[in-house]
Design goal:
Layout lengths: L1 H45 L4 H26 L5 H17 L1 H16 L7 E4 L2 E8 L3 E5 L5 E5 H6 L2 E3 L5 E10 L5 H11 L12 E7 L4 E10 L3 H18 L16
Antiparallel strand pairs: 1-2, 1-5, 2-3, 3-4, 6-8, 7-8
Helix pairs in contact: 1-2, 6-7
């Protein structure tokens, strides 16, 4: 009986001195973690990060905080956590080596979401692929091409490639190369080109610009430059191409094609 009483007395002391503080630490820690996660959620909502990153950031923070809380509570119970930390480090290293490419894409995804070289809806060119950004995922960036194809580019390839964003500045310059016969005067052709550049989607504050670009074997090469909004680029390009032919026909300007003059000596 005395042995049982001694055991119960010792167990009560252990519970009061060790288990109860550890339990209190765990409960307080859970409350603090939930508070921190709420603050993080509010901060992410106000941030400019893509929504695709919000859930992962919260998941990573939650896992790290609960892991630290478990180690603190275990240490308070008298458990040696040194071995646990060492084992976790080895496992983390092994996992990171086995999924190196996935981790590279994941880190690159965070880089894209933070630096924001483009956003959803932007028309971009990445590693030779051009299209409208549909989604910036954590491992892949999804583009929608003009002919309605979905292209998924690994984020690691995106961050290591040259990125051209055609939308971010709001306006684009439409360059239209044109050739005209040597028989047409330069002034007449330039005036016709400037007239052809006045299409509905062109920006009125920037007048069309035309100039001689060079002299070819069969024709004089010109360039017509028209400004439009980024969204109206293709509409403007097609409209200008159509109007150039109309204006040239109205002014009797010939669009030449490569030809060869042969002179025979008697």
């Amino acid at each position: 009986m005395n042995t049982i009483n001694a055991w119960l007395s010792g167990m009560g002391g252990f519970l009061l001195a060790t288990v109860l503080p550890a339990l209190l630490i765990f409960v307080v820690g859970v409350v603090l973690i939930r508070l921190v996660l709420k603050l993080v959620a509010k901060a992410l909502t106000k941030s400019k990060l893509e929504k695709a990153a919000h859930s992962l950031i919260k998941t990573v923070i939650r896992a790290v905080l609960y892991g630290l809380l478990a180690l603190i509570a275990a240490s308070r119970l008298g458990i040696d956590v040194t071995g646990i930390v060492a084992l976790a480090s080895v496992l983390t290293l092994a996992i990171s080596l086995s999924v190196q490419n996935a981790l590279t894409n994941l880190i690159s995804g965070f880089t894209l979401l933070y630096t924001k070289p483009f956003s959803s809806g932007d028309f971009v060119e990445i590693a030779g692929q051009s299209g409208t950004v549909q989604e910036i995922g954590l491992t892949y960036t999804k583009l929608s091409t003009g002919d309605n194809k979905s292209v998924f580019i690994p984020n690691g390839a995106v961050t290591s490639a040259e990125i051209v964003n055609y939308t971010v500045l709001g306006t684009r310059r439409v360059d239209v190369p044109i050739s005209a016969a040597y028989s047409a005067s330069v002034e007449q052709v330039l005036a016709a080109l400037r007239q052809a550049g006045k299409v509905p989607t062109a920006l009125e504050e920037k007048e069309p610009f035309a100039a001689v670009k060079g002299y070819g074997d069969s024709a004089i090469n010109y360039v017509l430059q028209v400004w439009s909004t980024a969204d109206d680029y293709w509409t403007t390009l097609f409209a200008v191409n159509e109007k150039v032919k109309q204006v040239f026909d109205e002014n009797g300007i010939e669009m030449t094609y490569p030809h060869l003059n042969v002179h025979l000596d008697k």
